[in-house]
Amino acid sequence: MDIKLLLTTFGLVFLAELGDKTQLATFCFSADCDNRLSVFLGSAGALVLSSLIAVLLGAGISRFVSPAAIKIGAGAFFIVVGAWTLYAALRA
Questions:
Q1: Are 70 and 62 in contact (CB under 8 A)?
Q2: Does the model's pTM come out above 0.70?
């Protein structure tokens, strides 16, 4: 196991998830429900499953597409979504 890669991945995913809508939804669920363990297990399970899907898809796609092209595609996707969000906010 590559401990440096493990810690880098953990740190980046942890920082990326802080304050995002998934964390806010979990916050709201735990505020509304008495069974916080169920909220924690549900949200943790969802994050683990979505991460597993990302790892499997990333491993599969990387056989056919270069990592540089994947990074460019992901960056372009985020720019498009950001522009769309900005446009929608300014239009409202």
A1: yes
A2: no
